[in-house]
Amino acid sequence: MNIVEVKNISKSYGKTTALDDLSFEVAGGELFGFIGPDGAGKTSLFRILTTLTKPDCGTANVLGMDVIEDYRSLRPLLGYMPGQFALYQDLSVRENMNFFASVFGTSLEENYDLVAPIYSQLEKFEDRLAGALSGGMKQKLALSCALIHKPELLVLDEPTTGVDAVSRQEFWEMLRRLNDEGITVIASTPYMDEAGQCDRVALIDEGNILQIDTPENIVRSFRKPILAVKATSMYRLIKELRGYPWTHSVQPFGEYVHYTEQREEPNIDELEAYLTDAGLSGISIKPTSPDIEDSFIALMKDNHTHG
Amino acid sequence: MRTIKFLLQKEFLQIFRNKSMLPIIFVMPIIQLVVLSFAATYELKEVDMHVVDFDQSDLSRQLVTKLQASGYFHLKSRSRDIDQGIREIQKNEVQLALVIPPHFKKDLRSGKSSSVQMNIDAVDGATAGLIQGYGRSIIQDFNAEIQPRATDVQRSGIAAPGMEVIPASWYNPNLDYIKYMVPGILVVLVSMIGMFLSGMNIVREREIGTIEQLNVTPIKRYQFITGKLLPFWIIALFELGVGLLIAYYGFNIPFVGSALLLFGIAAIFMLVVQGIGLFISTITDTQQQAMFIAWFLMVVFILMGGLFTPIESMPVWAQELAMFNPVAHFIKIMRMVLLKGAGWAEVQHLTGLLSLMAVIILPAAILRYQKSTG
User: Which UniProt keywords apply (chain A) (predicted)?
Assistant: First the structure.
């Protein structure tokens, strides 16, 4: 059964198009990820799914209800965590929990089991004001507040933005646990390395969905061979590679540069000779296997050239 | 109902936790009443005076002494040069340069008329008017005192009979400016709480993004708005009570009318100003914008509301505009009820106007709020 069914949704603000004729489905029990850069339209899409804004055209059906017609009966079934921390900074951890529990007609005690794995980490700060929590703690509190009324669908807008690497990993593990308990989760992130945490991901850019698939399939669909190139001067390396006649894409990737070629099989020796001639030192070139970031960048490049 | 209770709980928790705002809410009535009532006075105190006495007679000295003895004028310097007096005014050393002409005593004693000149610093027109008024009346007194002696010389007889007007000032027998000011200041106080705090509070939810989280909860609009308006409605009425106590015990402001009537009308008045505050919150995105608009409106309301100058002395168009000024109506009602003991019969017309404003503005603001966040 599909929990979310979106058909041909568009949304623009003035002359800026945020969403351009989007369609997708999310099945019940999925951990579904939206991955894309800032300004891709993720937040606009989530605000439509959570009944906070209306699409210009198209329909969105969530939990079998229309987001415009049935918004009143839909809201209590949703848990939403906005991208910007939206709890009361001048209320304590406990007061925030109590407030959001009570407006949903429940209490922390009643649904404690559900939030326990997350909230237990916050309990020693119960009396601390939410504004005084660290980034990771804030996100845990926001997740607890979004969960307290046992929602059937959890919508999280960039929950790991501004959170350190360890907390990010921890956060995804929490989402996975909730998902195992039967809650469908839709989350967005600008970090491509987080794609692997999801059952399925949608790559989104400039209001278009470029691809929807499992992370493994997305990587597999990337056909071009990739070379990881390294040299002492990163800046000059990128510059020279861009000037190479066979270059298809050049993307910095940690201490390496990921390089793809227009030809089917790149010639490593030829490339090395070109770079040495250009006066670069410490050159190392080796084939590498693509990951989701390579796929995404390639897809984005296509999207830009065709659109 | 339960939801509204939780919202109120949350609001009061936040209000009482706000360390910078809370003291102001409770200290404001005291400070405003004390400072404004004493500072915004039309009584004259200790005007510095320069005397240019060309006559140097016992009579001219008597006049100067009489001015000093009144307690309103203080002799700061004297000279025999009018320009010196003007220079002193220019330097802000004195506000009045009094010039007594030569032959002042001789002219008066011989039954001729003489004139003294008052050069007044009129940058502040109101004070200048007061200096002129007080000065003139003292000089006239002086004139009356010496007149019989002067006329003795010519013909015996008593002061010429004539009409005398004896004014009786009702409701404020000593023409106490404080009694006029305090009721008005109390109105400004509750208006500020109504217009600024409740409107600002709503904008704040939008500014810091908490409105996003609230909007996905089953909280309904009317519950949200009630939760925002009610706390400040209660606080404002409480403040009015505190203010009235301070006014009564601290300033001896009479409280002739009915407290119940006054609070009943205040409750309606609050709905009007809170409606305006709510309306402002629907057309702004940040607290700064809301503050700016609220402040602009407030200044217009106060200046055209008869707090400092009576509405009756404004031009006709301004008086007609004052019809739409809730602050003006409530200031008038406050003065009528507090000082004159006006009852329902006397204030029902104005109260009706306020009620009309409430039933127009508040629903309009709520409607507009729904549209702006749809």
Answer: ATP-binding, Nucleotide-binding
- Taking the C-alpha atoms of residue A179 and residue B48, their distance in angstroms, rounded to an integer, is 84
Contact (CB, 8 A) for B294 and B195: yes
Mark yes or no for CB contact B218/A76 under 8 Å. yes
Evaluate whether B193 touches B242 at the Cβ level (below 8 Å).
Answer: no
Domain spans in chain B, listed from the N-terminal domain onward: 47-152, 176-372
- B374 pLDDT above the threshold of 50: no
Nearest to A103 among B6, B209, B374 (CB): B6
Chain A partners of B215 at a C-beta cutoff of 8 Å? 52
Domain B47-152 in CATH: superfamily? abc type-2 transporter like domain (3.40.1710.10)
Whether residues B210 and A86 touch (CB distance < 8 A) is answered with yes
Between CA B193 and CA B13, with CA B278 as vertex, the angle to 5 degrees is 55
- Taking alpha carbons only, the member of B32, B30, B37 closest to residue B308 is B37
How far off is chain B from A303, nearest CA to CA, in Å?
32
pLDDT on residue B251: 80
Choose which CATH entry (3.30.980.10, 3.30.2320.30, 3.30.70.100, 3.30.420.40) describes domain A223-289.
3.30.70.100
Give the number of beta-carbon pairs within 8 Å between A and B: 63
Question: Would you call A51 and B216 a contact, using CB atoms and an 8 Å cutoff?
Answer: yes
Q: Contact B357/B265 with Cβ under 8 angstroms?
A: no
pLDDT band at B356 (very low <50, low <70, confident <90, very high): very high
CA distance B6 to B309: 45
ipTM of the complex: 0.76
What pLDDT, on a 0 to 100 scale, did the predictor assign at position A43?
92
Mean of the pLDDT values across residues A114-137?
89
Q: Point out the residue among B13, B210, B218 whose CB comes nearest to the CB of A103.
A: B218
Chain A residues 35-54 with CB within 8 Å of chain B: 50-52, 54
Q: Around Cβ B369, how many Cβ atoms within 10 Å? A: 20
Shortest distance, CA A65 to any CA of chain B (angstroms): 15
Higher pLDDT, A37 or B360: B360
Q: In terms of Cα–Cα distance, which of B321, B189, B315 is closest to B242? A: B189
Residue spans in chain A of domains classed CATH 3.40.50.300? 2-213
The DSSP letter of residue B343 is -
CB of A108 within 8 Å of a chain B CB? The answer is: no
Nearest residue in chain A measured CA to CA from B3: A103
Nearest CA in chain A to B223: A103
The CATH number of the structural domain formed by A2-213 is 3.40.50.300
Instruction: Considering chain A, tell me which residue range(s) the CATH 3.30.70.100 domain(s) occupy.
Output: 223-289
By C-alpha distance, the chain A residue nearest B219 is: A103
Q: Please tell me the least confidently modeled range out of A73-87, A107-121, B125-139.
A: B125-139
DSSP state letters, B137-200: HHHHHHHHHHHHHHHHTT---PSPP---------SSTT--HHHHHHHHHHHHHHHHIIIIIHHH
Q: B8, B20, B213: which to substitute to probe chain A, counting the most A Cβ within 10 Å?
A: B213
**Residue-wise pLDDT tens digits, A69-97:** 998 899 999 999 998 888 999 999 999 99
- Rounded to whole angstroms, the Cα distance separating B106 from A235 reads 103
